[in-house]
Amino acid sequence: xxxRTVDPTGDIPNIPRAASGEPRAxxxxxxRVIVALYAVMAVAAVSRSAVQIATRFSEAPxxxxxxxxxxxxxxxxxxxxxRRGPTARRLATVACTVELVGVLTVGTFTVAxxxxxxxxxxxxxxxxxxxxxxxxxxxxxxxxxxxxxxxxGAPDYLT
Amino acid sequence: xxxxxxxxxxxxMLGGVLAAMGRTPGDxxxxxxxxxxxxxxxxxxxxxxxxxxxxxxxxxxxxxxYLLGTVVVMPLVVFxxxxxxxxxxxxxxxxxGLTVMAMVARLWQMWQAHRA
Lengths: 159, 116
Prior knowledge:
The complex is a heterodimer of chains A (159) and B (116). Chain A is an all-alpha fold and 159 residues long. Helices cover 57% and strands 0% of the residues of chain A. Chain A is elongated and about 50 Å long. Chain B contains four helices and no strands.
């Protein structure tokens, strides 16, 4: 994983640098579990919004557009977390943040004025229909992105 | 149907327990996943026969999508866990079991809705 095999200080040549300095892959170790959860949510959200839009879009255009938006966010988050590199990391961070804001906004809205949401989206009632996974997942995702970004290094039990 | 929910539960629990024990994935989890997949396939055949006979669940399109979805969950999850031969591989499989359980429950709901 570290691409420099020579210690930059020159004190101990040819010994791999400690992994703690470099960003780690977000899709290994505990990250693999997060990616799996995101993939499940992505597939669920995409299928749900596809069916909603294809069969009865006119009934609740706002809710169904929101469903589609959430689906895109989940897909982007899944890819961002599954792939390596700074671009993927940035994509995942943005997607997780948007997801967190989305679930909090839509969740609050559906609790406050339920009549405006005649049909469910994944974010309705803070993700109640999906055992609150939509609420917990972005927090875990962002925490994991921070953990793996390098500098501090994740504790051993998470690798 | 009941067998499937129980099967999903078993995979979920076992995956979770093995992950908690910090064991590295072996053949046990694979065999169990294969068994669950077999149950899923039996359900698909059963549902296909019922649909061919003219039985219609509520929301036919969603029902069929869920049915197809249940088939791909375990293979994908096992594939994804194989590259991770640590305790987290087990947890990934556990999530697969939970997903199958949730999907079967939803299928059952749709099937009952048409009967009622």
